[in-house]
Amino acid sequence: MAVKKKSFARAKAKTVSIHLEADEIQGRKPVLLFTASQIDEVLAEAKIQMLPFAPEYLLGLCAWREQALPIIDLVRFFGLSSLEKKGGERYVVVRTVDTVSLVDDGDFRSEKVLLRCVLKVSDQIINGDIPADCEPLYPKQVGFAPIFVRGLFRGEKEVFILPDIAAIIRSNSLGGVE
């Protein structure tokens, strides 16, 4: 009797692409890429509370569901040049999990913490998958600090950026990371 092989469908994470209103990278449009589970909400507008002495990319704070969240402009963060707005802008509440190390009575342990921020983005938000024919790029090839990028892929018309949101949120305390 022949043994039947079970076929398993690979679980595929649903992705969300957000086109950046920025100059091209290596002749391609920059696109942020997230899993759908990272996106908590898309906001049409956000009331921004400015912060004195904040870096240029940190637009301020906004209240979201009884939380004060930082608003980050990733175009500025990555040092890209902004294009003239073709459409409207949106704000996306993004979440990530970070691991923090703690010392408790001489014992080292780590805990997972949920972090959120609001990203200022264009209104070009699309559900879909990254094309299979993309080739990986090293962040330094496009002038990005590797610590802030989880992945970078060059497609036919786009460069897909998988930002490390936890590292970006922590970046003010890192000081001069390259």
TrEMBL record:
Superkingdom of the organism of origin: Bacteria
Which InterPro entries would you find in this protein's record? CheW-like_dom_sf, CheW-lke_dom
Domain (CheW-like) spans 12-174
Pfam families on file: CheW (PF01584)
| SMART domains membership | CheW
**Gene3D superfamilies attached here?**
CheA-289, Domain 4
Biological processes per GO annotation:
chemotaxis; signal transduction
- Name this polypeptide is given: Chemotaxis signal transduction protein
